[in-house]
Specification:
Elements lengths: L2 E6 L7 H12 L3 E7 L8 E4 L2 E6 L9 H18 L4 E5 L1 H14 L2 E6 L11 H14 L5 E4 L4 H4 L9 E2 L9 H5 L8 E6 L8 H9 L4 E6 L4 H12 L4 E3 L5 H10 L2 E4 L14 H9 L3 E4 L3 H9 L2 E4 L4 H12 L2 H19 L1 H15 L1
Parallel strand pairs: 1-2, 1-5, 2-4, 5-6, 6-7, 7-8, 9-10, 9-12, 10-11, 12-13, 13-14
Antiparallel strand pairs: 3-4
Helix pairs in contact: 2-3, 7-12, 10-13
Amino acid sequence: MTKIVLIRSNPVNPDSRLEKEAETLGRSGYKVAVLGWGRWKTAAKTEIKSGYTIYRILLKAPFGLMIIVFWPVWWFFEFAWLMRNSWDIVHAADFDTYIPALAAAKIRHKKIIYDIYDFYPDMIKLPSGIQKIFSRLDKHLMNYADAVVVVDKCRLKQIDRKDDSSVTILYNTPNDFSPADVLSSSPPDGRFNIFYGGFLHPDRDVASMIKVVSEIRDCNLTIAGGGHPEDVRNIKNLSKNTQNVTYLGLIPYHEILMQSSKADLLFALYDPAVPNNLLASPNKLFESMMCGKPIIVNEGAAAADKVREENCGCVVPFNDYDALKTAVISLKDNPDLRKKLGQNGRMAYDTKYNWNLMEKRLLNLYASLI
């Protein structure tokens, strides 16, 4: 049996993309292990899941840019784990797991997949000179991978692989609900319900939506997710002080999907001043498609192109409070429009973005390496 280890520099608690990949591979007959960085020491050292086992290196580290200082320590433990354990293919997610995985793969003459969730040189704010060196290094080292995976076609240009058919594209799309799941969604309560489930950071502008909802009658906002403790604390306090806003904390991914299915509207706002956000392929876009719900996204992000192409939501300028409020009110007051946009999104999910299509790509990639 082929042994696979997937590596992520977070506790995988949860990590929807990696866990879908692990479940798919485990269900397809591979022996799958996941190695995660238990940076907050809140998750178990070992956890058995359906079709795979998670092993966590419990090494406390801060949020933000200071995490770079801890990379060498994490890399040491990651490399040691890979040298000590048995595996055939290592599947490394992002630059902060790739270097030790690449070293171990070459020393042990094993296969390596480089899965680029985010292109780090465009995600981390560094002096321009250092950023250019970082970018060149990342692009050079990815040439030594046996396979490269990206989350969206638009990312190919970012990594200088435009029109490169050898790169596998796996969209951040969820598994489809079963009919029972859909039917179990709560009935409408007569209010307009908005949901956000994801990373809590100022560049996602959740605070603006809280303010918008506070000024609209019969409108609720439910928020779930985690992030930097200070950012989470700010959102938690804003929610607590706003009557029709609820913060659920960090919840399992299947609950995020259930909350999305119950909502009337989802949103995904990404500050375009952050280079990586220009090419963001957010889970929430595909979750809205799968659930048949409209979504609000902002100008300057790749998600806006998909929303326009599929006519499945509204596009507003980032950090434009009036435009955001107008879009929310327009969708709240027009249920027929919401239904049409949701149907368009669901059609796009069925024909282009459903996880069954992504599973086939993933399994074909692994078959080509064995």
